[in-house]
Amino acid sequence: MKSYSLLLFVLLSSLYCATSSALTSKAFIQCLNAQYSEDSAPISQVIYTPKNSSYNSVLAFSIQNLRFASSSRTKPAVIVTPVHESQIQTVLYCAKKHNIQIRIRAGGHDFEGLSYSTVSPIEFVMIDMINFRSVDVDVASGTAWVGSGASFGELYYRIAEKSSTYGFPGGFWATVCTGGLIGGGGYGPLKRKYGLAADNVIDARFMDVNGRILDKESMGEDLFWAIRGGIASNFGIVIAWKVKLVAVPKIVTVFAVRRTLEQNGTALLHKWQTVAPKLDTDLYLRTSITAVTQDGIRTVQITFEALFLGGADRLLLLMKESFPELGLVTEDCMEMPWIKSALFFAEGGAFTLGESTEVLLNRSAIPRQYLKGKSDYVKVPIPVEGLEGMWERYLQVDDGAIVIDMSPYGGKMNEFSESALPYPHRAGNLYLMFIGIMWDANTTVEEQNRRLDFSRSLYSYLGSYVSKNPRGAYANYVDLDLGVGTSYKEASKWGTRYFKDNFKRLVQVKTAVDPHNFFRHEQSIPTFTNILDM
User: Per residue in 70-108, is it b (16+ CB within 10 Å) or e — as a string?
Assistant: First the structure.
């Protein structure tokens, strides 16, 4: 009888929650229609609920991590794809009135899917910024205004339309959008020359929790600091960034040289750790490590991948002086305009150098993945025995199931103090390490879980060789394994790892501009709730 009563209680509670949620969503939509009076663009045309036939396609279009495409995560009760700033203001007003959380999606590349789903079963509205994708390049001033929903492929393409000697230090993936990546710092192959994407932001158009549209001057120094690397969506909604363009030569050179363990790969990677951060700032040399099978033998393959701001002749001289062991030869080098290098660095070989650069405008061009990502910063070279321990673990999983990318620091990154922006990982770091574990649609749930456990085991193993006190992590590679929660104490577990001593200042800014913590998710910047926190 007790079991029956408990089951009945659960069923009735679920029914009540579902009914309550439906009523709240209905009231929210009624509020939108009542508050928005712009006849030229009815807000009803940009509202989607699960009852709409196009809801699933709108939601799925920017889900880049297929791990969350059909998971048990809670999906938005309402999606709004605004075309005008006034529509966003109306969404904020009605969401606050009806106590509904919002999530903000630009490109949908966040590793834990938090821009379009929730871990806990709560009702929320997703604002999809896909229509805010204008790019206005001003060659005369060397600047550009770029909408937060514009991809880096779109930004790079529009810059190249106007100039062959300007670029921007954004990300590798052409489909990643500016709103999220710049808001968390953002790095790419130009970072050793020009720093992070966020280091090159000179203004912003930003909407706060009250719907006010602010620029650098009106938002004030603290908020402008916070949105450039402190995950901007913690504080409000970026409409657009004004960025400083950077000089690039008419011809750059790229190469990708692959070496296995049998080809002296371990010794080469060991030396790379000290060479790459000290190279000429015109040269960015990263590594990507995967397990492969060659001639029936399983091994580890290390790809040395580079962008050089100049011609092949000078690059060959630099490599001969600094890293002759790699054995770079003329045939390895490919000269091209800077815009073509964006095709070269596309994830997973999605593009070929023979393609038109117009492919950068295709937001669906890069294959989507099932992915779990983790990150680390390395300050002291991992010894040979440490690398060999990694290889032992690498060979425990299938080919292609794991990738480790190592992105070197040094150069311009050493010129910024840890507090210049919220992103604190500057001088003293040799490189950033990304650990990605992947699978496909045919992978069993059991195997998925085994790979997730493996990624955590490898992460634990690496603890002896990476930064400490705190063990650093990159905020744009959000990792819920580091913890979840909304209190200052809970958030400190991951906040100090992403932002180090800048975390407390971010909380202070958050408390000032969003005191009721309206913009929040499972791993967002909290507010100070009592004097003991401060």
Answer: eeebebbbbbbbbebbbbbbbbbbbbeebebbbbbbbbb
Three-state DSSP string of 319-376:
HHHHCHHHCCCHHHCEEECHHHHHHHCCHHHCCCCCCCHHHHHCCCCCCCEEEEEEEE
The three-state secondary structure class of 481 is helix
Contacts of 496 (CB under 8 A, 6+ apart): 470, 503
- The per-residue pLDDT for range 29-44, each reduced to its tens digit, is 999 999 887 766 789 9
Cα–Cα distance measured from residue 493 to residue 437, given in angstroms and rounded to the nearest whole number: 23
pLDDT attached to residue 501:
97
- Report the phi/psi class of residue 42: left, alpha or beta, with left for phi > 0 and alpha for psi in -120 to 50: beta
Beta strands in 271-310 (DSSP E): 283-294, 297-308
> Do 163 and 385 contact (CB within 8 A), yes or no?
no
What digits encode the pLDDT tens for the residues 180-204?
999 999 999 999 999 999 999 999 9
Q: How far apart are the first and last CA of the chain?
A: 51
Distance CA 412, CA 282 (A): 11
Whole-angstrom distance, CA of residue 36 vs CA of residue 87: 7
Phi, psi of 304, deg, nearest 5:
-95, 115
Q: What's the DSSP call for residue 228? A: T
The pLDDT of residue 169:
98
Q: Which of 36, 477, 488, 498 is catalytic?
A: 477
User: CB of 32 within 8 A of CB of 47?
Assistant: yes
Full-prediction pTM beyond 0.85? yes
157 tagged catalytic: no
Cα 71 to its chain centre, rounded Å, is: 21
For residue range 47-73, what is the model confidence (pLDDT) as tens digits? 999 999 999 999 999 999 999 987 788
Query: Which tens digit of pLDDT belongs to each residue from 77-105?
Result: 999 999 999 999 999 999 999 999 999 99
Q: Which helix (H) or strand (E) covers residue 144, if one does?
A: strand 143-147
CA 364 to chain centre: 17
